């Protein structure tokens, strides 16, 4: 699996390598790109949308708005990535000969909705299919529609929100894979087939071919899948899912994650095999380098895993002001604001420890666990004090504060999940401990907070937790940050 907030996966194979893209919503840079040789071990090699000429999210972009559901394909020697920017911009295509980048500036497709897909027929015509399962032929050089738009399949009668279409030609038959039922508990994957890219399509008699609705499987909300044929001829499905924890209704805090399942073909239809909580596959193992737990900010640029809220303007951050430190200059006043100076990474493990050496002698800032502007916990240094702030909806409170000596201090956040079997119906999914370390390394916990309030079930939306560094007043500097998992994801 690719743990943490990596939803809406799209995958393609080029030779012996596999490439995968995910949604990024209100975060910049947008659309993380991963590479693998075995569909199990993935490394992030870049972000497709890493310039303001490609992605310019204004402060009015709502949380869980932004970049939705990319499709990644390789055609005629180039990678093509098509995605939508909601609610402001529309649908774009960017291309590159190297998936690590750089990617081109976008070509905009005004006649295409969200969840767009690209497929090419034998004549080289590009077919774009999108949510609502509507389809139009497009000129990718200009973005213009070639002919009219039509609905090609309505999905399962009565099922909510037919979306996330992907179109494939397999042995002369065209297969249309879609998600339906909504991206929550009713989510599923269904398929239809036809003689041409525009159908007519007949539904699989066994739809949905993947859904965990109404089950006790540890992976829930399964859907939004994409098929890929491996180099050895086997077939696989990547898809999103969640791992709820705690009591009722079950809270997932990491967001929607990417999972893998084997696919076989029976009677001309794809059949999805076992879904495991850890990604497994039948290909020879090709592990990738494990990123170091600690980032000392010694490079010329930030690693691709680091993301910011909506934008990362040059005046708000620097790796050069104090070499070997990440410097953040405050913009808006707090994490409640849409343009806060923030650099974070997706929380990818239910149990983890995040530590950072922070110099807040010229401002106020620290470590935050963020879901959106109205749901976040932070431990903050500045003005000779350390405090913990909790924001849940309309409520906010400084939970604790304590004087500290001048100079840098190690701030620390820990998450500890609840057990697999709830002790009571309302058991929290995890607890979040926030505080600082003494010079001897002892963790002083200033507060321990219920993790359910930083979950999708409380906050709503489509994202998951991001843990990172921020500045709310003046200038705050970070010598290093260490993200240390405690066990498997």
UniProtKB/TrEMBL annotation:
GO molecular function: hydrolase activity
Keywords: Glycosidase, Hydrolase
Beta-xylosidase C-terminal Concanavalin A-like domain boundaries: 294-484
Source domain of life: Bacteria
SUPFAM superfamilies recorded: Arabinanase/levansucrase/invertase, Concanavalin A-like lectins/glucanases
Annotated Pfam families: GH43_C2 (PF17851), Glyco_hydro_43 (PF04616)
Entries under CDD domains matching the protein: GH43_XynB-like
Presence of the UniProt keyword Hydrolase in the record: yes
Span list, region Disordered: 406-430
Protein family according to the UniProt entry: Belongs to the glycosyl hydrolase 43 family.
Name of this chain's protein: Glycoside hydrolase family 43 protein
Organism, as annotated: Phytohabitans maris
